[in-house]
Design goal:
Keywords: Acetylation, ATP-binding, Ligase, Magnesium, Metal-binding, Nucleotide-binding. The protein has 648 residues and is of the alpha/beta class. It contains 21 helices and 30 strands. Among the domains are: 262 residues, ANL, N-terminal domain (Rossmann fold); 120 residues, ANL, C-terminal domain (GMP Synthetase, Chain A, domain 3, 2-Layer Sandwich). Helix content is 32%, strand content 24%. The chain binds 5'-O-[(S)-ethoxy(hydroxy)phosphoryl]adenosine (WTA). The site of 5'-O-[(S)-ethoxy(hydroxy)phosphoryl]adenosine has 24 residues, from helix 12, strand 19, strand 20, strand 24 and strand 25.
Amino acid sequence: MSTEQAETRTFAPPEELVAQANVGPEVYDEAAADRLAFWEKAARRLDWAQEWDTVLDWNDPPFAKWFVGGKLNVAYNCVDRHVEAGHGEQVAYHWEGEPGDTRAITYAELKDEVCRAANALVELGVQAGDRVAIYMPMIPETVISMLACARIGAVHMVVFGGFSADALASRLDDSGAVLVITSDGGYRRGAPSALKPAVDDAVGRSPGVRNVVVVKRTEQDVEWTEGRDLWWDDVVERQSTEHTPEAFDAEHPLYIMYTSGTTAKPKGILHTTGGYLTQVAYTHWATFDLKPDTDVYWTAADVGWVTGHSYIVYGALANRATSVMYEGTPETPHRGRWWEIVQKYGVTILYTAPTVIRTFMKWGEDVPAGFDLSSLRVLGSVGEPINPEAWLWYHEHIGGGRCPIVDTWWQTETGAHMITPLPGVTTLVPGSAQTPFPGISAKVVDDEGNELADDSTGLLVLTEPWPSMLRTIWGDDDRYVDTYWSRFGTNVYFAGDGAKKDADGNIWLLGRVDDVMNVSGHRISTTEVESSLVGHPAVAEAAVVGASDPTTGQGIVAFVILRESGTDSGDELVQTLRNHVARDIGPIAKPRQIMVVQELPKTRSGKIMRRLLRDIAENRELGDVTTLTDSSVMNLIKEKLPAAPSED
Ligand code: WTA
């Protein structure tokens, strides 16, 4: 053991978890002995209308087909089969609205609602394969809409409610959506926020959208387009609760989720049916040790991100979990809201992001200490590396020192957990995601793709296809190949993350190595923010970097050159530009800081040197500047640095 490890505290799994965990250490051996047989067994946890002939078709990499020839219905697997097995009275969701209103929805009720919504979609002419956009707050109808699409084979495309009208419009256009499901708004930070105006704006530019179905959540007035807009209550509530689910091919598209890449245009990640559901269900059951009869499970994330898709909706429901779903923000109406929810519902498993944990740390341990959190037994982390300090705080002040923390590394593209400890098996090393999931082959390689020995740093790759992998980028197979499968050949998936393997073989994720920033666990492309900034008439050139931030992981820092040197470059303009980006992309993309500069550091070949900009943004000594066209640029930039970042 190296000195570094000797100093690290590790945590062995609690004894009673070792004895009762859904999976033990044998799963690693089982998967290593026969990877495909292992996934095949995982697939058998679902109900298939027709069994597959071939587990994996990888004859044309990187285009994978899993469970070839198999047929199933995702909604049936998530809802109906539990009702048929006698669990109709079990609560599927304890939903908690931000203002304090609540709804408990049983599996039987969920089945009725999903059938009604499916019948409504059919009445509106939606067919299998059609794309349906969902732009909603965190309310039960969001889940019902997703399941209704899955039930009839329509492909849903959920857009996070924090995205702008422009972002929604480009996604409607790229996916070719025929229908939008939205609401008048939702509650956030103690007040209703609106969604319908953005939909009106975006749909006005998307001729392919025939109808907009609107759920009433708040009492806000909405603009209405007759013939196009329909109230959910008018079109869904009168439908029959009977709907016969059709079995779809294992490779039938299930959903598209847009995510930021290294270019300005977001990529539509396509997930399909059988492999996706197999891996989200299995990982949800194994990673969280989910016990459907006794656990109360809470993924505290938004359904608008992949974490919500896989672990609020599909994984949780496929395993017949009782979940908590919360609409609002953690500090509304007080900073103990989450802990009040844990206490109220007796939450046993909590899954959230490091950025939230760091925020709670800032608020102090007295807040959670005011509530009874003794029901908790497993904690999870996702979205960015969790620093050991935050890990230990989470372990101690939320988990009472007794709950294992599973730090799950995965991506929109991977669909499900890929690297994570298992709660009844792994001796935990705070800050490390540690071990590839059974049946997953993750490696750390050098620039040439050679696997590195323990105790070294390189790039993370996945060297075998996995069931819940993305199948392509919607409408752009070439970009799919180029982005993920070209750096080391068509058999190796390049994740875009740097990683270190320690002397014991544990994997530590080190963040993105491409131009993707991670702000509060949200992926934002530097290029996307740059193109928004240069879209403003005052800006000639822009360079954006992610600078480390104690709470959000990274913060967005922009350097801009103005069109006219005489333009007032004061605070007002900086505010205008920050708001411009927020309006263009969404509030999550609003730069933390914008610096107006005369020039940007470029290499002789004209590439902006982001590394140097990052050094400046993080107030570091500048590194090597010898490849700069003109190193005096750096002095110019330094002179322009404002004393402190502009805060909201
Ligand atoms: C980062 C979220 C370290 C990583 C599920 C990845 C993580 C990107 C972790 C995907 C983790 C996610 N430790 N980094 N446990 N989980 N990431 O697509 O950089 O929103 O590439 O999926 O988040 O973000 P995405």
